[in-house]
Design a protein that fits this description.
Layout: H1 10-39, H2 45-48, H3 51-71, H4 77-87, H5 92-127, H6 129-168
Length: 169
């Protein structure tokens, strides 16, 4: 289901993508909600009734909607955010506005950048499959290098902070 082949006006593409992602996100939410209800009839019932779990669920209900909305700007995290919202029983009055905002953002991004990206990769593949694969590998290596560098920086800062704390004590 490639939106670049729909051959319809841009607003129709955005609306179609919105419906698709809204159904998927809400389906994930309700699977989480149903799974949570089912788990209450198993050995997990004690855990789900514990004060820690209830505090965490309350925290997610209160502060989770912005996370749900922003999760649509990520790859892969949106499913986890919607599932967590369902499992912890986020109130619909908090969830529905957040998921709607996220779905609108996702639909616009995918309809513009996503379709342009698909077209560019397709054109590049037609020109040179080896170049396409090489650039893909280079992008993955660049992201991995950046993440590794960030990890090292954070570790160094943490070590410096621990040394400073131990010197103060």
């Amino acid at each position: 289901m490639d939106p670049t082949t729909w051959n319809v006006p841009f607003p129709v593409v955005v609306a179609g993508l919105f419906v698709i992602v809204m159904l998927r996100a809400n389906g994930t939410f309700w699977l989480g909600r149903l799974g949570s209800v089912g788990a209450r009839h198993t050995r997990l019932a004690r855990l789900l009734a514990s004060p820690r779990y209830l505090r965490a669920a309350e925290w997610i209900d209160r502060y989770g909607p912005p996370v749900v909305a922003v999760s649509f700007l990520t790859i892969g995290f949106q499913t986890l955010a919607n599932l967590a919202a369902g499992v912890t029983g986020m109130k619909l009055r908090h969830y529905l506005p957040a998921v709607t905002i996220g779905c609108v953002a996702w639909a616009f991004l995918y309809a513009t950048l996503g379709t342009v990206g698909v077209d560019l990769v397709g054109d590049l593949w037609a020109l040179s499959p080896a170049l396409t694969i090489g650039l893909g590998v280079a992008v993955v290596l660049a992201i991995a290098g950046y993440l590794f560098w960030q990890h090292r920086v954070r570790s160094a800062v943490r070590a410096r902070t621990q040394r400073t704390d131990s010197q103060i004590a």
